[in-house]
Design goal:
Blueprint (H helix, E strand, L loop, with lengths): L3 E11 L8 E16 L5 E7 L13 H12 L7 E6 L10 H16 L10 H12 L7 H6 L2 E6 L4 E5 L6 E7 L5 H6 L7 H20 L2 H7 L6 H4 L6 H10 L4 E4 L6 E5 L2 H17 L4 E7 L6 E2 L1
Parallel strand pairs: 3-4
Antiparallel strand pairs: 1-2, 1-11, 2-4, 2-5, 5-6, 7-9, 7-10, 8-9
Helix pairs in contact: 1-2, 1-3, 2-3, 6-7, 9-10
């Protein structure tokens, strides 16, 4: 077997409460591993998928990692180059942690590394977004961008991929709890109203502006006042069992804010330090444990690297 390139692409938290489809950040774990290697047979193929319980197709056109890699190869004029991909899923599907985005980011980066890195990381973003679009039909980068390039990301425009890294105050940690109930992104979008009141618009705009100012000024109190989603969370919270109890437990433990990660069912909180993040995680976990709902807990600083070659 020919030597290959292995890439790790991390899970992400999208929306960050107040930034629906325009904010996201990367976690240190969990994530996906993608292996790319040259092959004698022309064309791109997926030869192996693990950890997916049969849910991922080997068909390049229907696989997020495969399609992202294919679009990169086409852009480089290398679509006839023999390349094989292995996809090792190490994070859950339908969790609100950007599973499909991690695969797309990992796939495009692995092939780019295999070819000798003809493009910089940021230049890979359009192909990774096209890959994730295979999964949910939407062209948005709030999971893909942080998974690929790391950090806390603002997407000013998804259409033009006008993407910017935001500063993160020292010590900030994320707590994410994933209850083992499935919520598909398309279902979570279907519950959303197409209308927003003027009052909601003003409140949400103030909150996202306050969050950005808080990040730039390292003003934790301003961040805490701003992490309040008045539009999306109230509509989606009913899809997640015990959401309000989990949120209350996190806030009581001293987190800066708590809301739904992506489309859910995962719930995230941001804290000023790792101790609060860990204590909040135990409190959040206790709610699901008492309700006899299996769950996974992750505590992580904001991952500033994104996808990395292993």
């Amino acid at each position: 077997m020919k030597a290959g390139i292995k890439v790790f692409a991390p899970a992400t938290v999208a929306n960050v409460a107040v930034g629906f489809d325009i904010l996201g950040f990367a976690l240190e774990k969990p994530g996906d591993e993608i292996i790319a290697r040259f092959a004698d047979t022309p064309g791109l193929r997926i030869t192996k998928v693990t950890g997916a319980k049969g849910k991922l197709p080997l068909d390049i056109e229907k696989n997020t990692a495969g399609f992202a890699a294919l679009k990169l190869l086409e852009h480089l004029g290398e679509q006839q180059r023999g390349v094989e991909l292995e996809i090792h899923k190490k994070m859950p599907f339908g969790s609100g942690l950007g599973s499909s985005a991690a695969s797309a980011a990992g796939g495009v980066m692995a092939v780019n590394e295999l070819l000798g890195r003809p493009l910089e990381k940021r230049q890979l973003l359009p192909f990774a977004v096209l890959g994730e679009q295979v999964a949910d039909g939407a062209y948005h980068a709030d999971n893909v961008a942080p998974s690929l390039i790391g950090g806390m990301i603002l997407i000013r425009s998804n259409e033009t991929l006008d993407v910017h890294r935001l500063p993160v105050p020292a010590g900030i940690h994320a707590t994410v709890i994933y209850p083992h109930v499935e919520i598909l992104t398309k279902d979570a979008r279907n519950v959303l109203s197409n209308t927003v009141t003027l009052k909601q618009c003003i409140q949400q705009t103030g909150n996202i502006a306050g969050l950005l100012a808080g990040l730039y000024q390292s003003d934790l109190e301003l961040i805490a006042r701003s992490l309040n989603d008045v539009i999306i969370e109230p509509q989606r919270a009913r899809l997640i069992p015990h959401f309000q109890e989990v949120k209350e437990a996190a806030l009581k433990a001293g987190v800066l804010g708590c809301s739904i990660s992506g489309a859910g069912p995962s719930i995230f909180a941001l804290s000023a330090n790792s101790l609060i993040a860990e204590e909040a995680g135990l409190a959040m976990k206790r709610v699901f444990d008492e309700a006899k709902i299996s769950n996974d807990l992750f505590v992580s600083p904001i991952n500033q690297e994104g996808a990395v070659k292993l």
